[in-house]
Amino acid sequence: MVFLLAAAAAPSPLYPVYQQAWGFSAFTLTVIFAVYVVALVVAMLLLGSLPDVIGRRPVLIGGLLVLAVSMLLFIHASDVSGLIAARVVQGIATGVCTGAATAMIVDLQPNPQIGSVVSGGASPVGLALGAAVAGALVQYAPWPRYLIYWVLFACYLVLILALAALPRAQRAQARSEPLLDALRPRVGVPEKARPMFIAIVPALLATWAPCGLYLSLGPSMLQELLDVHNHFVVGLILASFFAPAPLATLAAARLHPTTRRLTGFGMLGVGVALTIVAVLTKSLALYLVASVLAGAGFGITFSLTMATIAAATAARDRAKTFALTFAVAYTAFSVPAVLAGLAAQHWHLRSTFVVYGVIEVIVVVVAALAAQRAQHTQKGVTA
Prior knowledge:
Blueprint: H1 2-9, H2 15-22, H3 26-47, H4 50-54, H5 56-76, H6 80-107, H7 114-140, H8 147-164, H9 179-182, H10 194-216, H11 218-224, H12 231-242, H13 244-252, H14 257-281, H15 284-312, H16 318-346, H17 349-382
């Protein structure tokens, strides 16, 4: 899970380099970012049930092989079309792997709590690692446009060998079902879990919408508005949003679920609001504080969401349910970012960030209210 998401963030510090070399616009940049998510969501919807049928391990091995191929496509990309092709293949591979990896984590968890903490925390750790390491290699290592992809390529080969060597007892069980049935698109969750899923959709939108903006237009914003031109520093600033997430998740794990939820939404909303102030005042220090605060809120809220889904779904339906969960999350990850890129073509980048931030704060408030109402409804039904 960590290395799946590391690859998702790895191109972000390179976007200014690609822009300078190939001369494309901010909108084209967000399109390059978004095609990855479109491919990922399509793969999740088409193949989300496959790990439940043939098993988690074969799906992960096949997906990692395709992901390794996408790294080679990045290395050989010489223009925008090559970059888009690499992102599409990467998105397909990540979409295939994400549901299987999340389900496998929950299947093998030693207790009912740790699986959601690990699966929820692995995503931000991977995004932070990918952004920071890519930024360092672009700034200080040889072959700045290629080395990060070679590193990830080697990691995927090692992971494939590790999965192949797993003892049989550690391999998730498949269920008896025709393979062609598993390839049918299954957009939905088990009937008993649907009310829960509908209630958490606003939370998924609120937590993932800022991620896409930071990873797509974030590097350009840091250069143009905050005068940051060191690629390693850009990578570290991007990582400052994602790195606090798992730490905050662990710190909040002992809180009552209601308190934890309110804390997560509160930190996320305040962090985004402070980001608006930082952009308006051109304060890099405040931007860092805001990123850390928003990232901590992201981690707490997303981990609680994953725990809710894990508790509401049976093992046989878990992969497809997690696949749909990430499909919704990644839609929120990409669509607003593309709209922001389009808006930046007509308005100043600062204005785009401010409007985006205000809308995000509103979405966080709506998500918090929806979660609170869902909890009261669930208590009423229980009573």
